[in-house]
Structures are given as C-alpha cells and as structure tokens.
Amino acid sequence: MNDVSAMTSVESPVQLDSVHKTYGSGDSAVEALAGVSVSFPAGSFTAVMGPSGSGKSTLLHCAAGLDKPTSGSVRLAGADLKGKSETQLTVLRRQHVAFVFQSFNLMPALNVEQNVTLPTLLAGREPDRAWVNEVIARVGLSQRVKHRPGELSGGQQQRVAIARALAARPAVVFADEPTGALDTNTALEVLNLMRELVRAGQTIVMVTHDPVAASFADNVLFLVDGQIVTQLASPGVEAVASMLAQLGAQAKARRQR
Ligand SMILES: Nc1ncnc2c1ncn2[C@@H]1O[C@H](COP(=O)(O)OP(=O)(O)OP(=O)(O)O)[C@@H](O)[C@H]1O
Fold first, then answer.
1. Of 3, 178, 230, 257, which sits most exposed with the smallest number of CB within 10 A?
2. Which residues does the UniProt record annotate as the domain ABC transporter (predicted)?
C-alpha cells in the first residue's frame, strides 16, 4: 500500500477527488467548486481556464492547501490534506508548493539572488547555493544576480519570481496569470521558459484567461460554475479561443432562460 501511495505521489503530485467548496452559508452561500476530480501528472503543464467566478482561484487554493475543501479530498505529494493543522499545512506547502503571481511580488530592496533565497531562509534552511545558481542560470539571469527588481524589466522580474519558485525544488508550481502583466513578446519568453522547465520534469498548473498562454500547456481544463466541463489536450490557440467562446455562449443562453 505504501508503495502505491509513494508511486502516486511521484506520478501525480496533486490529486483532487470530488472537491466541493462552499463559501458562506444559507441564502448567501456560494458553491465555488461543485465536485472537482482531477490529477496533475508529474512533469505536466496544465492550464485552468473559465469565466470570471467559475472557481479557478478556488481550485488553485484548494489544490495548494491554502484553502480547505468543504468536502472531498486533496492529496499533495502523496499526503492527504484532510485533518491537517494549519502548521502541518504550512510545512507541506513549504516543502512541495511554490507560487508565481501576476504581480511578481519581489522584495524591492533585495537583489535577484537574495529574492530567490529568501523563502528558503525564512523556512529556516540553508539555501543550496549550487542549485540557486542553477535555477538563476535556467531563467537566464546569471548576469543579473546583484541587480534589484527595479533595475530589471517586467519579464526579467517574472523570471526572478520563477527562479524563486524553483529554488525550493517544489513538487508543483502554481501560477496565477503569470503573464497577465507582461507585453506579448515578454509573455512568450516567460511561457517558453515554463515549457522548458516542464520538459526538465517540473509540474506546473497555471490559471490564465489568455488562449495563447493556455496553448503552451499539455492540457487545458475548462471550469464553469465550479465544475470541469471539458478538457483539451495540447490545443492550439484557435481551439482554446473557440472553446471559450462556446462556453461563454452557453453560459449566456443559460442566464437568458
Ligand atoms: N473568500 C470568499 N468568500 C466568499 N465567496 C468567495 C470567496 N472566494 C471566492 N468566492 C466566490 O466563489 C466563486 C469562485 O471564485 P474564484 O475566485 O475561485 O473564481 P475565478 O474563476 O478565479 O474568478 P476570476 O477569473 O474572476 O479570478 C465566485 O462566485 C466568488 O465570488
């Protein structure tokens, strides 16, 4: 049995089974997730799309152990999150999860190297300097280690955020609109970098509204009203855009009924 769960954690660092999440109660209750079952295989790049309010952020937060499902189960790196205390969840997140946000969330007074090592130091561990140099090299910033965020372009700042995410060797990187604040060319650069990292074995789950960004993923999940209504494997930009349009039209028709 132990072997099976160990294997599962390697093959699929994040698994959600029948996850429901309801915010509030009574008349004001909102069902943000209405029975989501999905696993994100190791070394895969998944995009999560859907209309505003469809539950994308809630899915990310539940999958990362930042928010607790109302029912259903989440396994992160083989560990069932059910019944875990806040302290235990924090430890699991530190070990296995990293985030990249639209706003890069870097510390302006710290240089690239210091930003990348900060989470490890805050977790009370000594950074692995060779690995830190390696991730900074992977994001193409070896010549900029002593620069502060204010001295870097938007794309370079997002690459620092990605290096910071990789520094702790996370089982999974959750990215919430990572290219939302970037111009088209810089966004493509960052997406190509993410693709390269996946090729090297990293698991990435990315929320995006952008069909171009989603087209870099191996699999695109479409959420509507808290449920995964369809998926597309390795889709082109046109296929993603047309699925979004179709789901938007269906939602509009439902509202008009
Ligand atoms: N903390 C909260 N308290 C109450 N309701 C919430 C909370 N967080 C989210 N919701 C509601 O849950 C539903 C899903 O929200 P969520 O933020 O997950 O959607 P989303 O698809 O990420 O939206 P967007 O694309 O606009 O960011 C929405 O109706 C939202 O208003």
1. 257
2. 14-250
